[in-house]
Design brief:
Largest sheet: 7 strands, mixed
Radius of gyration: 13 Å
Helix content: under 10%
Structural class: mainly beta
Number of helices: 0
Oligomer: single chain
Number of strands: 11
Distance between the termini: 37 Å
Order of helices and strands: EEEEEEEEEEE
Shape: globular
Strand content: over 45%
């Protein structure tokens, strides 16, 4: 699966952004679509995931209640709606896909930078 992330930018604290991740290739065998982020000087961390078939969602505690992950199966696209953004949300955001045959995320998109100013 090939992934193309977009939608990053500069926003003030309290604002919103929506990230998109367009998938192509063997999307029919995708189990999960996820979002991760990596802030400067920090390790990459999990943000959210959605089951491609069925749509069950899971969030990290740091974004729960503020971010919403969704997917459009017809368009093979996942979205991350980010609300009530905080400066600590500043990071490069990556989308990823886990194939049904894989035990981990095995396809990654390029990152998209989100900067939240205080």
């Amino acid at each position: 699966v090939q992934l193309q992330a977009s939608g990053g930018g500069l926003v003030q604290a309290g604002g919103s952004l929506r990230l998109s991740c367009a998938a192509s290739g063997r999307t029919f065998s995708t189990l999960y679509m996820g979002w991760f982020r990596q802030a400067p000087g920090k390790e990459r961390e999990f943000v959210a995931r959605i089951r491609w078939s069925g749509g069950s969602r899971y969030y990290s505690d740091s974004v729960k209640g503020r971010f919403i992950i969704s997917r459009d199966n017809a368009e093979d696209t996942s979205y991350l709606q980010m609300n009530s953004l905080k400066p600590e949300d500043t990071a490069v955001y990556y989308c990823a896909a886990q194939d049904r045959s894989a035990g981990t995320y095995d396809s990654w998109g390029q990152g998209t930078l989100v900067t939240v100013s205080s």
